[in-house]
Amino acid sequence: MIANKKEFGGGLALMVGFWIVFAILLSPLFPGQDKKVNLLDYMDSMYNSISKNSAYYIPDITKRADKLRGTSFSITLKVEDKQSSPRIATMLRTSGATVEENNSELTVSGDLGAVLIAAMADTELAYANDSEALKQRHGAEAKQVMFDWWNTLSSMEKSFTKQEKFSESTTINKAKTKAVETAFNYYGIEAQSIKDKAILVILSLVGYVIYTMWFGFAILFMFEGWGLKLEH
After folding, report:
1. Other residues' Cβ atoms within 10 Å of the Cβ of residue 46
2. pTM for the complete prediction?
3. Average pLDDT for 20-25
C-alpha cells in the first residue's frame, strides 16, 4: 500500500519528467561540426576545445629548445615499420641532422636544439589542424608525423638519460608529452577560450547539479510516499 499518494505521485511525476528530459538530451538536436548531435556529444566537444586551448605549451617548449642550440647528440633509432624509415630520415635531415640508414635502424646525429625546434614547428601545424602543410613537408598525415616525432624524441630522451644529461632529457620529455602527444590527441579539434563559452560552462555545471538533485528527490519522494523511511 502507498502511505502518501500525493507525495508518491509527486515523486513519480519528477521521475517521468527526468526520463523525458534525458531522452531529449540524447536526441540529435544540437549543432555539431558536420551534423546535429546530442547534448552529451555537444558538451564533450566544447570541453575538449576549451581544454585544448589551455594545453598549448608549444611556445614555452620552443624557447627551452632554443637554449639547447649547439648541444650535439647521437642516437640509434629503431623503426619497426620499414616504410616509415625513409620518411623519418627525411624529416630529421630537414631539421639539420645527419642520418645514416641501415635497414630498420637510423643512426642520427646533430644539434639537439635545432631538431627540437623543427619538431615544435611541425607540432604547431598539427595543433592548428593543418595536415595539408605537413603532408607537403613530410608526405604524411599530421597524426603520422606526430607519431614519428614521438618515437624519435623517445629514443633521444633515453639516450640523454643514459648519459645522465637530465636537463636535456627533461626538455625532450616535455616536448614529447606536452606538445607532440597533445597535438596528436587533440588533432581535428578547434581550440577555443573558456571566456568565449563562459555562459555555457556555467549553465552546464548548474544544470548538472540541478539534474542530479532532480533524480535524487524523485526517488526520495517516491520511497517516502510508498512508506519507506530510514530509522535511527
Report:
1. 18
2. 0.79
3. 92
